[in-house]
């Protein structure tokens, strides 16, 4: 009997220079690079992005880096799950080619100045609730882009505002990177997958379903009700949901990323954030 080994040998780098040189060689031999940045604790949502990337690019690079500059809450940073061995096995299973997993010292040389103009994007919703978050996100993503130099970069709809922020940075800095928006992968009961979900207690895990439920309701009512009405009903649903502390429920023009009560924009998105127990959860759904 012949044993067929299907798992790919993943190449793992900790050094910026080493991964940069390795990918430069592949690029000069005509290979396209697809990049999937993550903070690890990989779930099916992350892995679906790797699979999507495999359809677009020749060489798939995943990064795992829990970026300190994007955390407003020190405890959240300290407690962030880091199951590195499991992550490596998962990446091998989906035939990811390269893992870049640097230490903090490899990405930062001490206190660094970074300030990029992001229009209104870092002043509203997540930007307002988490001051400095998108400055930290753009700071690390720019460093990762410079290191990997990808043709394609894959970001999840789960963090739609982050996608808008990265897209703004790419335009502003004239980066030659094609951004690809990847769909949200959900648990069977509708909860959007997230690395932080493991910290939900069994009760909170049930209560968290209010977020996906309110989005599904908004989508169902989209054809028949006006936007202010949908918003009002969503807010009162969330207020009466047990164990939930709502931060926002908004309906935005998905292209301009501004609040709207008109159904005319070509694409509309509902976005929700809430604290479930001590865990912050965000979710969204395209309505049109
Ligand atoms: P994170 O590791 O949480 O920083 O996420 C890394 C990337 O995975 C981001 O682009 C996220 O938007 C994306 N992502 C997170 N959760 C999901 C999900 N449930 N489905 C698809 N993509 C996701």
Strand order of the largest sheet: 1-4-3-2-5-6
Cα shape: globular
Strand content: 15-25%
CATH topology-level name of the largest domain: Rossmann fold
- Could you tell me the number of beta strands? 10
| CATH level-two architecture of the largest domain | 3-Layer(aba) Sandwich
Structure, described:
With 288 residues, the protein is of the alpha/beta class. Helix 10 packs antiparallel against helix 11 (227-240). It has a 6-stranded parallel β-sheet, sandwiched between helices. Strands 8-7-9-10 form a 4-stranded antiparallel β-sheet. Helix content is 39%, strand content 20%. It has 2 domains: 3-182, Rossmann fold; 195-286, Pantoate--beta-alanine Ligase, Chain: A,domain 2. The chain binds adenosine monophosphate. Adenosine monophosphate is lined by residues 38-39, 45-46, 48-49, 155-156, 158-159, 182, 184-185, 192-195.
Short summary of the structure?
The protein has 288 residues and is an alpha/beta fold. The chain is built from eleven helices and ten strands.
